[in-house]
Amino acid sequence: MTAKVIKTRRAQLTPKFDTAPVTVLVDDSARLHEIRQLVQFNNKSSLDENLVICQIYMESRFDANATVAGSTAKGLMQMNKGAVQQVYKYRKQQELGHMPSDLQTHQAFAEGAAMHVSSSMFDEATNIQLGTEYMQYWIDKAGSLEEAYKLYRGLSNGVYYKKIRACAEKLKADPGSMQPLRDMAK
Fold this sequence. Notes:
Blueprint: H1 29-42, H2 49-60, H3 81-96, H4 102-117, H5 124-141, H6 145-153, H7 159-173, H8 179-184
């Protein structure tokens, strides 16, 4: 049985020697809308959704498959292995109402490590859930939101939080605009 050709089209191909860059206009506000919906449905923290959106952009530029050479950070929120393990331990602590035993901690860390090596780390909803749970851990532990962001990022100067907070304020005023995110990332 042969395949029936429904329609053909002839077009001139770009010659190999033509390597001039071409500007392609992309409406990335659609991706912002997708991320906003994901955050609305998967935010496991007390953080304002605009803060989470700005944090995601700062970490991964909305690339669900983002990784960094020499790091275990993965996905939209760049969750590393230790952070995922901490989320699993924190879940166990919340479930028990007290610190888990050494055995329970070991089991939680093993579950977190298994999650980290799974393809689920690149699932956008899962990554946002884990990232926002990790942020909530630091919010609960720290005295302020600024301190929580310092602990999340491992930086003591507060620049990370200041950039995210300023971006979130601008994004709140114009929720469909990518410009505050682009300006933050400069």
